[in-house]
Design a protein that fits this description.
Layout: H1 2-10, E1 26-37, E2 40-47, E3 60-61, E4 64-66, H2 75-87, E5 93-102, E6 111-119, E7 131-135, H3 149-164, H4 180-191, H5 197-206, E8 210-217, E9 224-229
Parallel strand pairs: 1-6
Antiparallel strand pairs: 1-2, 1-4, 2-3, 2-7, 5-6, 8-9
Length: 246
């Protein structure tokens, strides 16, 4: 399958007029998939195959692959397909991150990849056999990745952290039902710093992005109201960032 796509990409493109005659670069899509796992921000990686001719055999990499011209209507569709293949879910949030390309990033030839990042609740994922969650202590990955995926991941982490300062993106990392302290904790995990409880609660409730459900979470302390993300709600952009506590 991948070999066929590779051969097509390396072939020459001949137009009807015979004017077009040039080698085409390898074209792929890679997806940086984030979730909160074991109370930490983690990224989903896949282990590359060890077959003959495979670059970076058995090295960890971002999920992705060649664009399938028969299946993928556009780059976003390809990213969504790769996400489903590796996690079994459709991400509630998928954003294009950028493009990387050069003659040296792939030993098989000139290649370009279009990267996306996705946010999913951990409880929703059903991982493929070659996939695994990796923690990001301090917003960094200790392992070396295949290709230039380390650079792509670093860019995705920075993009996520920057946007969390002024948007509702962490809501897409939440399970179907959650409390306000749960949501605040996810913000704090991504930002890697504490937030003031009262100011956080006021901002989230005034943003009209979540709604209460008709039940409470009961535990050793007093019952806590459960919420859910409003159906079809687009990300909310706040007028101010979350300032660090004084």
């Amino acid at each position: 399958m991948a070999g066929e796509a590779l051969n097509k990409n390396l072939g020459k493109d001949h137009g009807k007029s015979g004017q077009l005659d040039f080698p085409r670069p390898l074209t792929t899509v890679d997806v940086v998939i984030f979730a909160i796992v074991n109370d930490s921000l983690q990224v989903l990686l896949v282990q590359r195959p060890a077959g003959e001719g495979e670059p970076f055999p058995l090295t960890w990499a971002l999920p992705g692959g060649f664009v399938d011209v028969a299946k993928d209507r556009d780059l976003a569709a390809c990213a969504a397909r790769k996400l489903r293949e590796k996690t079994g879910v459709t991400s509630p949030y998928l954003e294009q991150l950028g493009s990387w390309g050069s003659a040296t990033r792939d030993p098989r030839g000139w290649s370009a990849t279009h990267a996306y990042f996705a946010l999913i609740p951990d409880e929703a994922s059903e991982l493929a056999p070659d996939a695994r969650w990796f923690p990001l202590p301090g917003g960094r990955l200790k392992d070396k990745l295949a290709f230039d995926h380390g650079d792509i991941l670093a860019t995705a982490i920075q993009r996520l952290r920057n946007k969390v300062e002024y948007t509702s993106l962490p809501a897409y990392l939440m399970p179907a039902e959650f409390t306000l302290p749960d949501l605040q904790r996810v913000y704090e995990i991504v930002l890697d710093r504490p937030l003031e409880k009262s100011a956080f609660r006021t901002r989230i409730l005034s943003a009209d992005m979540i709604e209460p459900v008709a039940k409470m979470r009961r535990g050793p302390n007093r019952p806590a109201q459960l919420y859910r993300l409003k159906k079809g709600r687009e990300p909310v952009y706040f007028v101010r960032t979350f300032n660090p506590p004084e």
